[in-house]
Amino acid sequence: SNPATVEINGKTYATDSWFNAPANVLASTSRKLHLQKDHPVSITRQILESKFPRPTFKYHNDFDPVVSTVENFDSLGFPPDHPGRNRSDTYYINKDMLLRTHTSAHEAALFRASESDGYLISADVYRRDEVDRSHYPVFHQMEGARVWDRAAVPGGDVAAAVYADLARLPTHDIPVEDPNPPFDPERNPLQAAHHTPSEAEAVAAHLKRSLELMVVEIFTRAKAAAARQDPNYVDEPLRVRWVEAYFPFTSPSWELEVYYAGDWLEVLGCGVTQQQILIDAQVPSKVGWAFGIGLDRIAMLLFQIPDIRLFWSRDDRFLGQFAGVSDDLARLRRFVPFSKYPACYKDVSFWLRSTLSAAGGNSRDASAQDFHENDLMEIVRDIAGDTVEDVALADAFTHPKTGRRSMCYRVNYRSLERTLTNAETNRLHDQVTQALVDKLGIEIR
Ligand code: PHE
């Protein structure tokens, strides 16, 4: 019962058997929270943009969320069998078009356009994922990139030019843990065919300082806000560390982690841009870096927002707390939670089809092999909307004789706006259960 066409931001797209975007997700494409004045995601974007000034950087904040599989994956060097391409992870409109899973989908086009030495892209991105207080199928990213042109420097080695730009960046005094070598032949290789070691080191040094300054800015503002609200506030010193990472479109690559409330949190991914992307974009003489940061998580830390669903709320008790901040960042305050309404847990226990009986049973039944947790997550969210706070596997076992797999998921229903009645939650849970039976072919225990 898929629609034959869907309209997204005023454009019509034909669907096919790949289509898997639920109505609530499609409806989110028009919200553009990163552009909504005084919205915490938008305020966070503004603060980050301030660290990457024009005209070196050009800002792009209105790119369409529907992109091709070429833009989202192929142009970035994702192999054909990369798991990110699966329908269990990504929202497809049809075989060739999808809702971008990251802002990197626009890298190739902007390198090709070659309008500036750097750019920032802020946008909504879409991923099928688990249901809890820090995951939502729609979130926001900022992509940043900076290039230097060999053709513009004598001798064609950009290292000196990059170091000269690095010397112009401010310094900071927070401790940074970075035990990593500049590159590692196995784990994190230099693109030796394209870059000299000193070029890669220079680009990495410029990248790391730029991003450290961005994180310092965010956390300095968060602490100032906390101190304005609570004169007795004692700040924990900010700690950051670099860890090696892998992305198909950068090498070497790193992630930056921030120590916050007892945990190391991964806040961004980055690296030296794969030269092949620049070659394909007809700018083979350019060398540079790229990063991608999740705006929602950063906003949650900055404003102490406990639940990602709040970003989608139109409740003035939420939005009202940020009024005027876009025009005057000194008015930034941490979020003061309005009373939390009670949680209501409901379990759903079911059998998957036996994987031992090859032919038997209804072909629509879910077997253990084709059960994807994200399908269940999405069905729950589709029915319960923003009244579902969390879905978690509570128990699973495989029957020793029949080979059938049993699973129990616990759904936590909790509205951000009111107390749900027990009768209402039961009705919702019955609908969820029925939808799981209809769509996944499971058998309720
Ligand atoms: N696109 C990556 C992600 O979504 C982040 C990234 C961007 C990494 C640019 C490296 C360079 O995880």
Description:
With 445 residues, this protein is an alpha+beta fold. It folds into 2 domains: 327 residues, BirA Bifunctional Protein, domain 2 (2-Layer Sandwich), CATH 3.30.930; 101 residues, 2-Layer Sandwich (Alpha-Beta Plaits), CATH 3.30.70.380. 27% of the residues lie in helices and 26% in strands. The protein has 11 helices and 17 strands. The strands form 4 sheets. It has an 8-stranded mixed sheet. Strands 15-16-14-17 form a 4-stranded antiparallel sheet. Helix 6 packs parallel to helix 8. It starts with a strand and ends with a strand. Phenylalanine binds next to strand 12 and strand 13.
Q: Quick recap of the structure?
A:
With 445 residues, this protein is α+β, with helices and mostly antiparallel strands.
What is the percent of helical residues? 25-40%
Low-pLDDT regions: 357-365
The CATH architecture category of the largest domain equals: 2-Layer Sandwich
End-to-end distance: 28 Å
Q: What oligomeric arrangement do these chains adopt? A: single chain
SSE string, helix = H, strand = E? EEHHEEHEEHEEHEHEEEHEHHEHEEHE
What global shape is seen? globular
Radius of gyration: 24 Å
Classified in CATH, the superfamily of the largest domain is: Bira Bifunctional Protein, Domain 2
Which key terms come to mind for this protein?
single chain; 445 residues; BirA Bifunctional Protein, domain 2; Alpha-Beta Plaits; 2 domains; 8-stranded mixed β-sheet; 11 helices; 17 strands; transit peptide; ATP-binding
Question: SSE layout and pairings?
Answer:
Elements: E1 5-8, E2 11-14, H1 23-28, H2 40-49, E3 57-60, E4 66-68, H3 69-72, E5 92-94, E6 97-99, H4 107-113, E7 118-126, E8 138-149, H5 159-168, E9 176-177, H6 197-229, E10 239-247, E11 250-260, E12 263-273, H7 275-280, E13 286-294, H8 295-303, H9 316-319, E14 344-351, H10 373-384, E15 388-398, E16 405-413, H11 422-440, E17 443-444
Parallel strand pairs: 3-7, 9-10
Antiparallel strand pairs: 1-2, 4-6, 5-6, 7-8, 8-13, 10-11, 11-12, 12-13, 14-16, 14-17, 15-16
Helix pairs in contact: 2-8, 5-6, 6-8, 10-11
Bound molecules: phenylalanine (PHE).
